[in-house]
Specification:
Structural class: mainly alpha
Helix content: 55-70%
Number of helices: 15
Number of strands: 0
Radius of gyration: 16 Å
Strand content: under 5%
């Protein structure tokens, strides 16, 4: 599943730049400190929910809590409100978040379903157990929908037209975006930017370099950008192999099961 691997690779590459933003495309992709963050754990948790449960909201809550407890973050960490939600094991319900956590974890939904309507339906489910704000749901649905469209051979012009109808304002010029962009962990403040970085890229690596170079919440922006770029271009072998070497075997098994589920459906 190139979208999921692409998301995880983006997260790992962005992990060292989240609190050390750089405003250039010239940087080392992987360093000795590069590792996966909560973005990868939650991405895999949603994939696990899709392939190993009945896909109910209650099962999603249980799966996310189990994965968060089982796999500590080597890098990064969960937001304050999400930590409280985990501590209460989801019993307090969603907390109205419009943060980008709903969008960064949704890539598997875009890979899984054969129907656009189901993609949107389950993207909303995946978001609203925590991020039940309109913008939190919108961000998740936008990312999952774009991955679905890519799977169905939509080109970038058609994807741009779709995004403009969401509506999100897309900055076409990455140099302008880089110059003006500041840290913003919300969906409306990071999802359109991730889409811009994808649309402006020439290949997977170029998209990721765009994402890191604008600064901000680098691991999450690169995770979202990487999901779209992975689906569109594929993930280069040198990035794929390094990424797989840094994640637990359990994650790889879930991703492989997701791939088999998708192949059976086409």
């Amino acid at each position: 599943m190139n979208a999921v691997i692409g998301a995880i690779a983006g997260d790992i590459i962005g992990s060292v730049y989240e609190h050390h933003n750089i405003k250039t495309k010239e940087f080392i992709l992987f360093s000795d400190e590069s590792n996966y963050t909560d973005d990868t754990i939650m991405t895999v948790a949603v994939a696990d929910w899709l392939v190993n449960t009945d896909k109910s909201e209650s099962q999603l809550v249980e799966t996310i809590i189990r994965c968060a407890k089982k796999y500590p973050c080597p890098m990064g960490g969960y937001g304050v409100m999400f930590k409280k939600w985990l501590e209460k094991e989801g019993k307090s319900g969603p907390y109205g978040s419009l943060g980008n956590g709903s969008a960064m974890r949704v890539s598997a939904v875009g890979c899984y379903f054969d129907l656009f309507s189901l993609t949107n339906e389950y993207a909303e489910i995946s978001a609203k157990i925590t991020h039940n704000h309109e913008e939190g749901i919108k961000g998740a649905k936008a990312l999952a929908s774009i991955i679905y469209l890519i799977r169905n051979k939509y080109n970038k012009i058609s994807i741009r037209d779709y995004v403009n109808n969401v509506p999100y304002k897309i900055e076409e010029n990455i140099d302008r975006l880089r110059a003006k962009y500041e840290w913003d962990e919300t969906c409306p403040g990071s999802v359109p930017q991730a889409i811009s970085c994808f649309l402006a890229g020439n290949d997977y690596e170029d998209c990721i370099r765009n994402a890191i170079s604008i600064g901000g919440d680098s691991d999450t922006i690169a995770c979202m950008t990487g999901a779209m770029a992975g689906a569109y271009y594929g993930v280069p072998d040198y990035i794929m192999s390094k990424t797989l070497s840094l994640i637990p075997e359990d994650f790889i098994n879930i991703i492989n099961k997701l791939m088999l589920s998708w192949k059976r459906s086409i």
